[in-house]
UniProtKB/TrEMBL annotation:
Organism phylogeny: Bacteria, Pseudomonadati, Pseudomonadota, Betaproteobacteria, Burkholderiales
UniProt keyword annotations, A-Z: Receptor
Keyword Nucleotide-binding assigned: no
Listed PANTHER family: BLR1237 PROTEIN, TRICARBOXYLATE-BINDING PROTEIN
InterPro entries in UniProt: BUG, Bug_dom1
Gene3D superfamilies (alphabetical): Bordetella uptake gene, domain 1, Periplasmic binding protein-like II
Protein name (Swiss-Prot/TrEMBL): Tripartite-type tricarboxylate transporter receptor subunit TctC
Ribonucleoprotein among keywords: no
Family note: Belongs to the UPF0065 (bug) family.
Amino acid sequence: MKMNPPSTKTAEADAQGVRISEGGRVRRRLIGATAAAGAVSALPRFAIGQGAWPSKPIRIVVNFPPGGLTDNIGRQYGEFIGSKLGATVVVENRPGAGGLIGADVVAKAPADGHTLLMSISTSLWHGRVLYSRMPYQPDKDFAPITLFPSGALLMGVNAKLPIRNAKEMLAYAQKNPTNMGTYSPASWPHLIADTWNGSEGTKFTPIHYKGESPMWPDVASGIVHTAVGSHQAMNVHIQRGTIRPIAAVGQLRSPRVPDLPTFAEQGFKHPVFTLDGWLPFCAPAGTPEEILVKINDAILEGYRTSPKVKAMHESFGIPTGPTGLAETRERWAKESPIWIAMAHRLGIKLD
């Protein structure tokens, strides 16, 4: 099969804030409309835990474009957080530079619980070894609130290729120059391509996109051979017969394609194939503990009780829920070094 050359086009993201809506109407709640509320908002930080928070709209910065998994999680959980806390929640997409632009916005925001970050792990964990300079310090500038599971991301190939499983993909790439779409530099597909190039003699060229939305149409059309991402984002192309899923990343199969074996079940044991992926949700460092607890509690309640959140999890094939505050901190400390080490082996700088 003759493949077209890689596309140089990437979708431009809408960087404007998007207000969470319900029933097609924008929900607006007036926070701090009285002079008394205005006075409360001026109290020092230690008073926030005494009932003054939230005192204005809560902004969730998603550092990727609309339409992908990160964006959907931010919107669905953001809507529940707003209803639980009686606050207006605004979701603002700020993509660019592999997520660094949006993360930097939050890193430099006041630590008052009114600006939060919905991110992939690259921006906060292993991105530090890929950039000579980062505008923030990941370990010092953020307070983790929860880790959302990414679920079993899938490797999909253009359906015209003679590839039906991961071993056939590997064999094809060992014999042919092959490209792999990634939704961000240093993302999971980038690490998979590098791992195979280093250990199996493949010839993958990563093609970086700003999120999943512009990536999968290029796989479906044959511009890109293969990519890794969420079932929801690629499903329309699976239904059309233009993309074929061949393996699932992580410990569990995807509930959306239960007959599809994982990479591990197909014999691939490297951590890049077996680790479970996480999407960090953070506040600026120094945000009061009481606020972190309240937000985490709302997120966990949303997972247990919200029909919209449940539907979103089912749509993306994510059978597990977000982590509690203690587990979040434990996993952050334990698993981020593994991702950082894998990124070190890329041996590249992106700036």
